Amino acid sequence: MPQSAQPNTQQAALWNDASGKAWVDMQPILDGMLAPFASLVVDAGYPGKGGNVLDIGCGAGATTLAMARRVGNGGRCVGLDISRPLVALARERARVEEVANASFEVGDAQAYAFATGRFDAAVSRFGVMFFDDPVAAFTNIRQAARRGGKLAFVAWRGPRENDFMTTAARAAAPFLPQAPAPDPDAPGQFAFADGARVRRILEASGWSSVKVEQADVPCQIAESHLMTYATRLGPIGAALREADQATAEKITAALPAAFKPFVADGRLISLPRAGWSRRWPEGILISEKPISAF
Question: Which CATH entry fits the domain spanning 9-160+182-218+273-290: 3.40.50.150, 3.30.1360.120, 3.30.70.120, 3.20.20.80?
Fold first, then answer.
């Protein structure tokens, strides 16, 4: 598949450098933590045996590989991601795991020159919140799907509803310069917090029968992996890479106590997650939120 010019230059730089490398290093941890979401997306987007599926923002390939196995040898799943390090890892996983009907491409779904009507379904596990122009992106994805094709994805809701994901930032805030208030619609993990906005984006992009419904999905991460998770990813990962040693030490010292409310049995972080889910012939939105504080 040839590719046209890529508009999301800031995201491309981020995911081809520190963020992409962190996700490569943490692939087993993150895939384990997010496995229930991958299953949800595969179930919702499954087009039947022999189907042809696009995985948007495929990362290290967990959802692509799972869908490829589900559609069988007569079908195919193509993973697309802006991150070269993650695509390289995904290709290696497909080779090692001998999933011959999974393939991976480096590219941006907002501008990729897809063949019209190529896919029976498009899916994504947290890979669609990073577009400069989401209407253009989902219009491009729509033309890549056949008439009546499926769209199924998961996307986080707002930071106020994601206590676990924002704990590190709150703990680090006293030691960092005050950051400007983020643009809620800017590309990023919480860009799709407003379900009504997402519905408008999909409908403006040509998708129909868009449904948003709640789903509860329990996830866990081992406590032994918690500090790696908290210090390598997101804005705190970026801040720690830039901070002087004294500031970095203060932040890392504050994190264990901040995360203590989430520790279950001294061993696991237990994350009940509630969000949105609905199977539909065309235009599915599945948006997840963790509700870790009760």
Answer: 3.40.50.150
